[in-house]
Amino acid sequence: MNGLSTLLIVVGLFLLGGIYSFVKQEMPKSLIVLLSIGAGMCLLAGVMRLEVWN
């Protein structure tokens, strides 16, 4: 794992924690969906950058 893939995965996991927090606070669903899309994109980009796939 290089630094950028690690950073993307950590940011994605951080955003997943934010989603959990926003759901518990009953924030608007559109905000939760937007945060979910961002978390998914960060996690996907981090996993795709791993050296395992080469």
TrEMBL record:
Name under which the protein is recorded: Amidotransferase
TM ranges: 31-50
Keyword Transmembrane: yes
Domain of life: Bacteria
Keywords: Membrane, Transmembrane, Transmembrane helix
